[in-house]
């Protein structure tokens, strides 16, 4: 990676840490804590969340963000994870980062697209689409997650799941390297805006968490999934971990990119085969 890229990453991190909105992508590529977990979560198990993946920086093989598999060739993550980066790849089928299972698979990328409307300062349109060079092999521990229908929002109060290897607290420096999970309810836009500010939370974002805090995504979880179950117990990718004011603070829930606002964008930026695959997972 070029020196200019390192400087831009450091500058971006410093700018955001000086503000209330903190990206949940860890310490980027210089002080990545790969042995960490979701705040207030519990240990998951291999294969429970088969769409959960990792973004890994190629020169150092360091994990820096999460991602979600949405078809055999396409992956979704947060734009703030990938902006400015070219040397990274994805891994799926992982439970313990320190002990990659035989079933884990690594894939290089053909291309990436960050949303043209992505705004780093506000995290508006914080979504990126990745295409792997080769089709991803589905197994018992690697499967795609369903997408919501365009414009159909998850109802307020729905209890959803967050997963990742993010920090256990704002000040954490180390913790188990295994995947963790937690449940959080979706919060109304009006309530979330009252806790942050009306101008902070956009319609393409939503909040999930608890008034008293205690459970949340944190640095290291960025780009990872927030999934909600339908009445038929099918999980749907409703959110992408984006940012928050600290981690698990009272009245400062995690903020997620609203995937249902970007389904048409996903179709518009995938080829015919990709669209055919994606349609199999839209409900």
Automatic annotation (TrEMBL):
Listed SMART domains: Tryp_SPc
Source domain of life is Eukaryota
Leader sequence range is: 1-20
| Residues in coiled coil | none
Could you cite one Gene Ontology molecular function of this protein? Answer: serine-type endopeptidase activity
UniProt keywords (A-Z) are: Disulfide bond, Hydrolase, Protease, Serine protease, Signal
Example GO BP = proteolysis
Q: Which InterPro entries match?
A: Peptidase_S1_PA, Peptidase_S1_PA_chymotrypsin, Peptidase_S1A, Trypsin_dom, TRYPSIN_HIS, TRYPSIN_SER
Q: Name one GO cellular component term.
A: extracellular space
Record-annotated Peptidase S1 domain positions: 38-271
Q: Does the entry feature the keyword Disulfide bond, yes or no?
A: yes
Protein's name according to its UniProt entry: Peptidase S1 domain-containing protein
Q: What are the top taxonomic ranks of the organism?
A: Eukaryota, Metazoa, Chordata, Tunicata, Ascidiacea
